[in-house]
């Protein structure tokens, strides 16, 4: 499957001037929610990612950060036949709520919709460690890190894209006066 074409077909690959949750600016944005609204595509995405994860890698639970990682965590957990939960921000810090728990020693796969700098996933990794869990890998639908090594553990993704990102003070779109749009769910300062 050509996933980038599917993103474009579903209107999930956006072009303009976007503020990413990392604080970086980009002329491209991947709105995975527009893909994940289709259960059949969500299931296929998760199965393809799960197939990339080594069969001998023990995973007890999949954790995704809210909001983008909730559906991904659920579908990936279903594909791997393990428990799936999500972390939420409370007072600016990732927390497990709603009765979710990670038991000491549990092997954890952290998943996201899109990884650029890995900020939210790394926050979830810290949370997992606080509970005594062990992060064994990361997963995402779209890896737009540009091949940077962000995590100590392996990262498994459906697709990898090299898309431009800019620090706000270096952004050519800002210099051109192109209006900035923040389509994500994270509140940035």
In total, the number of domains comes to 2
The low-confidence runs, each spanning 5 or more residues with pLDDT under 50, are none
Q: Residue share in helices?
A: 25-40%
Question: Distance between termini?
Answer: 38 Å
The radius of gyration is: 16 Å
Classification by helices and strands:
alpha/beta
CATH class membership of the largest domain? Alpha Beta
Strand content: 25-35%
**What is the 3D form?**
globular
The main pleated sheet reads as:
6 strands, mixed
Q: What is the CATH architecture assignment of the largest domain?
A: 3-Layer(aba) Sandwich
* Oligomeric form: single chain
Biggest β-sheet: strands ordered side by side in the sheet: 5-4-3-6-7-8
GO molecular function, one term: orotate phosphoribosyltransferase activity
Family: Belongs to the purine/pyrimidine phosphoribosyltransferase family. PyrE subfamily.
Catalytic activity: orotidine 5'-phosphate + diphosphate = orotate + 5-phospho-alpha-D-ribose 1-diphosphate
Enzyme class: transferase
Walk me through what this model shows:
The chain is an alpha/beta fold and 189 residues long. It has 2 domains: 14-30 and 164-189, no CATH class; 43-160, Rossmann fold (3-Layer(aba) Sandwich). 28% of the residues lie in helices and 29% in strands. It has 6 helices and 8 strands; from the N terminus they run H-E-E-H-H-E-H-E-E-E-H-E-E-H. It has helices at residues 3-9, 33-36, 39-52, 69-80, 119-130, 172-175, and strands at 13-19, 25-30, 61-65, 83-90, 93-95, 107-115, 134-143, 155-160. It has a 6-stranded mixed beta sheet. A two-stranded antiparallel sheet has the order 1-2. Helix 4 (69-80) links the parallel strand 3 (61-65) and strand 4 (83-90). Helix 3 packs across helix 4 (69-80). The longest helix is centred in the first third of the chain and has 14 residues, at 39-52. It is an enzyme of class 2 (transferase). Orotate binds at residues 116, 144.
């Amino acid at each position: 499957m050509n996933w980038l074409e599917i993103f474009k077909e579903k209107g999930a690959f956006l072009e303009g001037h976007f503020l990413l949750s990392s604080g970086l600016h980009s002329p491209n944005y991947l709105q995975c929610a527009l893909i994940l609204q289709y259960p059949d595509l969500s299931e296929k995405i998760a199965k393809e990612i799960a197939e990339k994860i080594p069969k001998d890698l023990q995973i007890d639970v999949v954790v995704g950060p809210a909001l983008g990682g909730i559906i991904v965590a659920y579908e990936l957990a279903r594909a791997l036949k393990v428990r799936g939960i999500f972390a939420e921000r409370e007072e600016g810090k990732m927390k497990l709520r709603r009765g979710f728990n990670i038991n000491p020693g549990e092997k954890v796969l952290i998943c996201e919709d899109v990884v650029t700098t890995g900020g939210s996933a790394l926050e979830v990794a810290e949370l997992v460690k606080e509970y005594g869990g062990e992060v064994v890998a990361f997963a995402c639908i779209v890896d737009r890190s540009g091949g940077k090594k962000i995590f100590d553990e392996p990262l498994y993704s459906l697709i990898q894209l090299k898309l431009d990102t800019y620090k706000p003070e270096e952004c050519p779109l800002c210099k051109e006066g192109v209006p900035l749009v923040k389509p994500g769910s994270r509140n940035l300062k």
